[in-house]
Amino acid sequence: MTDFTKTKALFQIPEGMIYLNGNSLGPMPKSAPDRILDFMHNEWATDLIKGWNTKGWFMQTNTLGDRIGALVGAEEDSIVVGDTLSIKIFQAVAACLALRPDRKVILSDNGNFPTDLYMVEGLLKLKEAGYDLRTPNPDDVMEQITDEVACVMLTEVDYRTGRKHDMKAIIDKAHAHGALVVWDLAHSAGAIPVDLSGCDTDFAAGCTYKFLNGGPGAPAFIYVAPRLIADVEPALSGWYGHAAPFDFDLNYRPMPNKIDRMRIGTPSIASFAILEAAMDAWDGVDMQALRARSIELMTLFVGEVEARCPGLTLAGPRDMNARGSHVSFRFEHGYPCMQALIAKKVIGDFRAPDIMRFGITPLFLDEDDIRGAVDILSDILKNETWKEERFQTRSAVT
Amino acid sequence: MTDFTKTKALFQIPEGMIYLNGNSLGPMPKSAPDRILDFMHNEWATDLIKGWNTKGWFMQTNTLGDRIGALVGAEEDSIVVGDTLSIKIFQAVAACLALRPDRKVILSDNGNFPTDLYMVEGLLKLKEAGYDLRTPNPDDVMEQITDEVACVMLTEVDYRTGRKHDMKAIIDKAHAHGALVVWDLAHSAGAIPVDLSGCDTDFAAGCTYKFLNGGPGAPAFIYVAPRLIADVEPALSGWYGHAAPFDFDLNYRPMPNKIDRMRIGTPSIASFAILEAAMDAWDGVDMQALRARSIELMTLFVGEVEARCPGLTLAGPRDMNARGSHVSFRFEHGYPCMQALIAKKVIGDFRAPDIMRFGITPLFLDEDDIRGAVDILSDILKNETWKEERFQTRSAVT
C-alpha cells in the first residue's frame, strides 16, 4: 500500500505554499540536488568522455524509458527518453503517415494541446499536398474515425478541462478502420493509470516535467508498440538511432527492430540525472492507489469549491473517473483571481479565456492542502481581492 | 590580452590527466556545480512554475544564443539555443528547401558528420520524390556548386582530420549560383574565429558540449541570417516558436520576423544553467588570441609527434591555418594505441578506420600538457605497449 505521507516528504515545497500546479511543472524532489551534484563531480568531471561507457550515459535513454514504462503499462524496451514532446509527436505522426501511405487524414480534436497540432501542420507542409488535419470537438472524434484516417492523434487528458478520452474505445475503433493512434500522455503519465500494452496502443509520447517532476523542460519520451517498431522508418533519423552509431557510415540504417531508432541526437545527460532522482520518488507507488487518492482529493476540492466559491463553474466532467488529475473551473474573472491566489501562495494557473486550473497530485498534496487552498480562494472571492489593480495586468508568460 | 593560465584554472581536470578530448566533450567548468545547485535550490525549488517569468527561463534560449553569437560573429538576436544539433540541421536544411522550391539538389561532402547526412535523408523521405543529396569529396565541393543546388550543407571543420573549409569562398560561390548554405559549427564554435555575419552566412548550427564545455548532451544552437528570418517557414513548428505561445491558438503562426521561431518545444532549463556557467569561462576571451595559441600548440604537438613517434602520419592539412583546433594522425594500430594512451591518462579518441584524434583546446591546455602527452605516446610506441591484449577489444561506444 502506497503511503502518501511518505511521498510528500520527498518533495521540496516552499514554506507556506500550497502547490496546485504539479500538472504544469512538478516540484523539486529533495534528492535531485545531490543526484545532479553526483553527476557533475563523479561522472562528468572525473570520467569525462569515458562517462558514455563507464557511467552508462549512452543507454540512459532506455533505462529511464523503462522506468517510465512501468508507470504507463508499456512493455520493456518500448520507450526511449529524450528531446521535447513536440519532437516526439512529430516522430510518431510521421511514422503513422509512412505506415499508411494511401490515407490522407489525420484526425485530432480542438482540445488537443496546440503544439501537437502545430507540429503536424509543419509535417504536412513538408509532405506532398493533399493531407487533411481535422480537429472536431473532442466528443465528435469517435464518429469521425473512418477508413480515410491514417492517424488519430489525441491528448488523452485535456490540458484545460481535465476531460479524459476513452483510450481503449478509440484505439479499438481506429484499428477496426485500419487507422493508427498516437497518444499524447502529457497529462496522463504519473497522473492516472495508463495501460499502453493492454490497450493495444500504437504510439504514445509524453513529457516528464509535469506529474513526473523532472524539472523545467525535462526530457520527453516516446513509446512505439513492439509489434510495429521494425516497420517504423524514423523521419528524424539522427546518429543516436543508427544501427552502428560509431561506424560513422554515410547512410542511415535504423537500429534493427529496436526502440533505439527513435533516438535522434545526443541527449542532455544532466537532465537525465535529475530525471533519475525524480523517478526514484515513484518507486513503490501503486498507480491504482494513486488514482484512488487523486479522485478522493479531486472530489473534496470540487465539493469545497462548489460549496464556498460562488461564481466558479466546474469545467469538464463531473464524474471524476472521466477526468485526469487536474480540476478546472470557469470564472469570468479567472485571470485576476488566479493572480490573487498566487499572491497568497496558492499556486494554480490560468488558461484563456476563463479557466482556473488546479493540479491534484497525491504524491505531495493532502486534505489540509485542499481545504487550505479553498479557504484562501473563498476569502479572495468574498473580499473581491481580485479587483485590486496589481492583479489585472497580464504577464507575457502565464 | 587573454591570459590562458587563468582560463586553465577555471576547469576541473582530474589529477594527472592530460585531456586532449575537449573537441568531443569539454571538461567541467569549476563554477558549474554551484550554478546548477543555485538553479535547483533558488530557482526551481523556490519559484516553481513562476520561474519561467521570475528567473527568465523563457528567454534563456535567446540570452544564451547571444553569448554564443559573440564568439561566432553573429548579429544580436540571430541565434537561439535548444534541442540537438541533428534537429537544428534538419530545421536549417528544411528551411533552405522551402526557400528554393524549384531546386532539387542538396550538396554536402563525404567528410560531413554522418548525422547531418542522416537527418537530410530523413527529410528527403518526407518530401516529395526527386531530391538528390550529393556527397563528393570535400575538395570537390566548390566545383559542384551549380544553379541546380538548393542548399550546400557542410561541416566547417572535418570531425576526423581537422581540415577546414573556406567558409567565405563557398558562401560566395553558392550565392552567385542562387544557393543557400548551412554550416555545421560543431568543431568551430569555441575552436576557431568564425565570422558568420561577415561571411554573409545564411544558416548555421552547432553544439555546446565540445569546445564550449556545456556538458554531455548540452543544447545545440541555430543561426539564421536576420535578412532571411522573416521568410523562414519553420518545419518543426512547436509552440515555443509561436507568435503568441500562451494564446493557445489552434493554428501555428511563427514569431514574426524573429529568430524565436526556430525554437520548438520546451527546452531543458537545467542544461541552460550549466551552459551559462560554461559561457562565463569565455568572458574576455579574444578569439584571435585563442586561434594564435591553438596554432602554437598544434604546431608544437605535430612537431613533437613527427620527431618522436614513428608510424604516425598527420591526417589533414599541414598548414595549421587550414585546420580547426584538433589534430589527427593515421596509425594502423590506432585503436589499441589510443586505448593504451587512455590507460596512461592521456585522453584522445579514435575514429575508424585508423584515426587517432587529439583536441587542442587552449582554454585548458599548455605546452607541458602537449609535451607530456607526446612523452607517453612515444613511450607506448617504443615499448609496443599497445600490443597488450587488454587494449585490443573494442567497446560499444568509442
UniProtKB/TrEMBL annotation, chains A, B:
Record's keyword annotation contains Isomerase: no
Domain of life: Bacteria
A family per Pfam: KYNU_C
One GO BP: L-tryptophan catabolic process to kynurenine
Cofactors required: pyridoxal 5'-phosphate
Listed Gene3D superfamilies: Aspartate Aminotransferase, domain 1 (3.90.1150.10), Type I PLP-dependent aspartate aminotransferase-like (Major domain) (3.40.640.10)
GO molecular function, a single term: kynureninase activity
Subunit structure: Homodimer.
NCBIfam families: kynureninase
Function statement: Catalyzes the cleavage of L-kynurenine (L-Kyn) and L-3-hydroxykynurenine (L-3OHKyn) into anthranilic acid (AA) and 3-hydroxyanthranilic acid (3-OHAA), respectively.
PANTHER family the UniProt entry points to: KYNURENINASE (PTHR14084)
Name the UniProt record assigns to this protein: Kynureninase
Species the sequence originates in: Sulfitobacter aestuariivivens
Encoding gene (name): kynU
